Each structure stands twice: as C-alpha cells, then as structure tokens.
Amino acid sequence: MAVAWLVVAAVVGLLVGRMIRERDRQVPGAPDAPAPGAREGTRPRVVGRGRQRRR
Which residue stretches does the UniProt record annotate as biased composition, category Basic residues (predicted)? Predict the structure, then answer.
C-alpha cells in the first residue's frame, strides 16, 4: 500500500512540476536595461502590493 502512495505522489509531483514550468515559460522576462532616469546604485521600483499597512 505504501508503494502505491509513493507512485501516486511521484506522478502528482511530475505533473505539478510540468505545469509550473509551462506557466513560467509564458511569463515575459524582466527587461535588462534600467528605466531611463533611474539612479545608479538603487534598486528598481517593483510594482505590486508591497507590505500591508496597518490602520
């Protein structure tokens, strides 16, 4: 019975890994050149939610 669970876990792991690789292949790469006007030595601004602010 334990062998059957290991086989199922391996198959699910392979399928999930394949799905993740396919998803990552569809995401466009980050641009290599910094944005115009960006100061040298600073990290580029990341668009997203960021840290949640408490009210």
Answer: 46-55
